[in-house]
Amino acid sequence: MHFLLYDLIVIEGIGFKVEELIRAAQPFTTTRLIRKRGIVLYQSEIPRSAFIVKKGLIRAYTITSSGEERTISLHAKNDMFPLSWVYGETPNTLFYFEAVTDTELLCIPKKELLKTVMTTPALMLVALKFTVNSYTAMLLRVTALEQSSAAEKIALTLYYLLIKYGIQKKPGLYTIDIKMTQSMIASLVGLTRESAAVNLKLLKKKKVLTYSNFSYVVNKQNLERFVSEDSFKNLKLS
Question: Which of 148, 149, 183, 180 is nearest to 162 (CA)?
Answer without folding.
Answer: 180
